[in-house]
Amino acid sequence: MSNVFSLKNKVAVITGGASGIGLAMAKRFISSGAKVVIGDLSDATKVAEQIGATFIKVDVSDEESVKKLFENTRAQLGPIDIVANNAGICPEFKTLNEATKNDYEFAFKVNTLGVAFGLKYAPRYMNDGGSIINTSSLSGKMGVFGLGAYCSSKFSAIGLTQTAAVELGDRNIRVNAICPASVNTAMAQENDQSQLEMEKIMIPLNRIAEPEEVAAVAHFLAADDCAFINGQAINVCGGMTAGIGPRL
Ligand code: NAD
Asked: What is the annotated signal peptide range for this record (predicted)?
């Protein structure tokens, strides 16, 4: 059973891999045997060196930059097996009444186009039978007060995931999305802390997720063992969507 969920010799690209959830994915994939490329807008040369990954700079909102990420990965490490389109941003907290065109455009460019470009170019450099994991959010399935721009971009990421699953099935490439509630990363720390406290009350496990707990789900989806899960958007929310608990 030692090969269960092994990623041995798989080539994986993780966008937004310089920190938070993406970095946790990179560490976990490497410890399971994968060769990992971290693609990020921030310089992750040092962190990549420390964990045994390769860093390639990318701006996921720039089509040419995304194409080069996958092109360069294949040139350096060979055909790609696993892609995590994970890079994302969260615009400032604003109600729909306050949100501007810029807020929507910023969220759309990174969170939606970032996934769309990944889904356009990665398959050209991938082995058949690979796995693509897009990081959406629980905000891709439900509205959140003050997060309209973010929610709309994350709903789109799920639509793209399902479309890609339909289009890439003939190549046996599975495409799934991960939908975390709040995760203990820089992004959550920048949020309104009183809103985080409210969220904890709504989560039966009474805490937010650690990035490693989201990376574990990505690992599950990445592995060949997970051969028949395709086109799904999987909640990683400590039971928040299950029902109303005792603290609410
Ligand atoms: P994070 O800020 O720690 O990591 C995001 C990474 O994406 C950073 O390394 C950043 O440099 C990179 N990035 C941002 N814009 C980029 C661009 N244009 N091109 C390339 N890289 C870019 O945050 P995180 O929490 O690890 O977020 C990872 C993903 O998880 C995001 O898509 C986010 O929306 C999603 N998510 C986060 C939470 C949460 O509470 N933290 C909850 C649900 C979903």
From this structure: none
